[in-house]
Structure formats: structure tokens, C-alpha cells
Amino acid sequence: MIAYIFEFSSCLASLILFYKIFLEKDSIHVFKRIYLIVTLLIALIIPIISITYYITPSTYLSNHNIELQQELSNISSLDNYNSSDSYLISVFVVIYYLGVLFFSLKFFKTLRDIFLKIKSNQKKKTVNFTYVLIEDLKIPHTFFNYIFFNKKEFKANQTPKEVLWHEQTHAIQKHSLDLVFIELFQIFFWFNPLIYIIKKDIRLNHEFLADEAVLSKGVSPTIYQQTLLNFSTSFLNQSLTNSLNYSSIKKRFEIMKKSSNKRILALKIFILLPLISVLFFSFSNERIELKTNFEVNKSVYIKYQDTINYKSKTKSYKLSLVKKSPIFKGCKLNSNEFEIRKCLSESLTSHFENQFNFEIARDIIQTSDKKFTSAFFIINKNGIISEIRSFPINKKLNDEFVRVLNLVPKFKPGLIKGKPVNVKYRVSMNLENDIFHIKSRSYIY
Known about the structure:
It is built from 15 helices and 16 strands. By secondary structure, it is an alpha+beta fold. Strands 8, 9, 10, 11, 12, 13, 14 and 15 form an 8-stranded mixed sheet that branches. A 5-stranded mixed sheet has the order 2-3-5-4-6, sandwiched between helices.
């Protein structure tokens, strides 16, 4: 979770920085609106994308030995996190959910206040809008097709047409959809300051869009700017509404004078593509799968596989998360982690080659519609195989799996922070073209 938050924040920070440097001061406001929303989605999705690389041990050892050591170091860090003080983790979890609860209540309270204002005040409906007339309202604002005006000024036709057009633009372009989206996003990422930065950028860009629409009607920029100044007060509008009053008046004045060069804009957008590619390859999850093939004879082909979803009765870990893997009898104790895992695979391969009755298995599988079977088990804290759970197509095959696994000699148990732990493992078998495949893969990530 911590790694995901870091990667999400890094992606979001990079995309916000690109926006601030290259896009914010340009007049491509529609593109900027799409960019800011998509930025959140990109930052959310990239860290959960997984890319799997399949490599052979010999290639990995010869070309990536240094990288292997680095990855093993990463595993160690992950182990330390997984085994950290549960009380401290519980405190952070409670704080997080309290924050989620607070911002959820705040969101629904804001919605309730808006609907109460709509329900309890006079309304004037037109084809596209509903004007809500409120006593003593300081600043006009919009929520979807509801536009809130000062009752006295509206009835006396004292509301400037520029203000009316501005608020109508918010309604027509459905800016409230963006605000609801970012408010929902904030509920779950309330602790991240980048959310508040992009939220401010989204609201400001809404004002750019509304300003652009008003000026496109032929309104003098000078007159319109004076109108903005007249409505600039310290009043704070609700988080789910768009109002003509917004803090960065100076920026809006500057943007009104801007005209964008199409070639420069195209170049900026072109630069964005490699940035997204860099973020994708930097923060998506890379999973290296080591393939080890051991040919036993002409009819038998054996590999081994680390389990992913096996749920044991006791607390246990995937092999990929164990700092020090279980050591098979005869393997060197002082080898590096890769060599230990490789020796584990080779030793289990040799054990199955010598002990498993493949003729029984072949007879059973050839007479069955199912060509696949597997067994899950634990290498426990004492180095003994336990909790064998198989999914056989025949009881005889199940008994053979159990028999062979029970013959495996005692391991030196796997370690996390120097303490013995239970380690999950999986052996699977399938028959293809009269050749057995017994598979196992050790995941670095």
C-alpha cells in the first residue's frame, strides 16, 4: 500500500508539473479540462498495471546479477514492512478510515445544503436552466443546471449579462461533473496534498472556460474584467459549485490576453507522450519470472512453481516474499538467494524424478478428461512439509502426491528478519502429448 501511494503520488506530481510548466497559461482550456481529469486516472491506474518478463536463470545470472541483488534487497524491505509492528499499522489504518469518514460526511453535508437551498427558495425555470433566487446571496454560483442568484438583484434586472453568461457556461459545460468527481476522489485520497493542488487547477480552468465563453460573445475584456473585480470578495463558495468569484483573478486576466501558437501547442502535446511512457515503465509493476527447465527423460519434463493464492490454515508467506528461502538438504547454506531457490527447484526435481510413479499418473490421466492436477503445501517453521492440499483427478494420484511429498527430507526453514516462517509452495502436473510437465516458478516480485 505504501509503495502504491508513493507511485501514485509520483505519477500525479509529474503530470501536474507538466501542466504547470507547459499547459496552464495556454488557451486550450477544453484540452486542459480533459487533461486534468485523465491525469488522475492515469496516476491511479499505472501503479497497478503489471508487466511480466520471462527469463532463463542462465541469462539472468550472466546479465543481471547486480539487478538480482537489488531485487532481493527490495524483497527484504518488503518483508520488514510486512512484519512491522501491527499496532502501529492499525493506528494508521484507523486514522485513514476516520479521514475517509470525515470527508464522506462533509461531501454529503454539502450536497444536502445545496438541495435544501434549491428546495427552500423561489425558483424560475427556463428551457435549459433553473434559477434559484436567494435573499442576501453575495456571489452567483452554479450546480449542474441550477444557477443561484441574489433574489433582489435578479428581479430588478441588476445582474450583469456577463455574469449571467458566465454562470450559464458552467451549467452548459457540466463543470459540476468534474467537481463531484474530484470531491469523491478526495474522500479516498484526503491525505495527499497533490489532490488539493489539482482540485484548485480544475476549478481555475473552469473559470478560464467560462471567461472564454463570455468574451466570445463580443464583450469588451476591459468591461468584463471590471465586472470580475466588482464580484471579487472574500466570500468562500461551496466545494461542489462553480461561482464567478474565484481567487486567482490576476491569472484570469493574463489568460484573457493570451493566444496560443498551434505549432507550439502541438509540440507540447507531443512531449506529453514520452512523459506518459516514462511514467508507465517507471511505476508499473514489473514481475520477473524465472524459468528453469530440467529434462528428466524422453517422456518426463519437470519444473516447479511458487504458489500465489493458496490459503493455508496457519500464517504463511509466498516464496517471493521470504528473505531467506527454505534450504533443501544438500544445498549450500552460504549461497545467495537466487542460488538457494535454484537449488531448491533442482533438488525437488530430482526428488520427483526418483520417487514419483509416473506410470500410475499416466494411466490415470490418459483415462480422464482432465489433464491437469496440482498440490499445495507448506514448508513449515520446522522445515517439514505440512498441510498438503491436492486437487487430483483421482484418489490414487492424490495418494501418490502425498507419498512423494512426505518423503522429502527436512528443510532448513525459510526466514523473515531471522525468524523461521511458514512458506507456501505449489507443485502442478499436466500431460501434453504424453509428456508430463510438473511446474514451479519463483517470483522475484
